[in-house]
Amino acid sequence: MALVLLAVLAGSGEDLYGYELAKRLQKANRGEALFKEGTVYPVLRALSATGLLTSRIVPSYSGPPRRYYRITDEGRRMLSAYSAIWLQTRDFVDGFIEAGIKP
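-> structure tokens emitted (103 positions)
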């Protein structure tokens, strides 16, 4: 999930808060949630704690304050590294799946 959250934040032109990130993930999956909303927050906190994201708290008129997240330069470097590993892994697995499907 860390890779996906970093990618969404890298592609966004604005800071995003946890609920908004969860809804964007759900929308990208045709309205079905791949991740429970509650699992997004611990990952955001971990990414922030390791310096891959920064955050700021903004008061909300419709409820509790919201914590907005932004990807850091280090987060962008990590996203690039994670993406390369993901592509290698995907290609490796696809090779086995395709070999198993062939008659």
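Residues 35 and 94 are 23 Å apart (CA to CA).
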